[in-house]
Amino acid sequence: MSLSLTEFRANLYKIVDEVIKTGVPIEIERKGVKIRLVPEKKKSRLERLVKHPSTIKGDPESIVHMDWSSEWEDKSL
Fold first, then answer.
1. Dihedral of the CA atoms 29, 31, 33, 35 (nearest 10)?
2. Is-above-0.70 flag for pTM?
3. What is the CATH number of the domain that holds 17?
4. What is the spatial distance between Cα 17 and Cα 4, in angstroms, rounded to a whole number?
5. Cα 6 to Cα 41: distance, rounded to the nearest angstrom
6. Domain range spanning residue 23?
7. How many angstroms separate the CA atoms of 28 and 3, rounded?
8. Pairing of strands 26-30, 2-4
């Protein structure tokens, strides 16, 4: 849907509520330039995760079975 700025201004709240309700963007035109009013799509928590590919280098399973006993010293003795 495309509207002139005058039409948009006359029904501003009604049009914005409709875009929010339906999720369908509208275009507003002024002096030959089109502007699009689009509702923000919220991302899920999983979609907002940032990848950290360099956090673990190698096979993560090797960390699970790592033996650190030779590195530990019992200082309480």
1. -40
2. no
3. 3.40.1620.10
4. 18
5. 27
6. 1-39
7. 5
8. parallel
Name the 3-class secondary structure at 9.
Answer: helix
Read off the pLDDT of residues 4-32 as tens digits, 9 standing for 90 and up.
999 999 999 999 999 999 989 999 999 99
Contact 5, 27 (CB under 8 A): no
Q: By CB neighbour count within 10 A (0-12 exposed, 13-18 middle, 19+ buried), where does 64 fall?
A: exposed
Spatial distance between the Cα atoms of 26 and 36, rounded to a whole number of angstroms: 6
As given in the structure block, the two tokens for residue 35 are 């502007």
Single-letter amino acid, residue 44: S
How many structural domains are present in the chain? 1
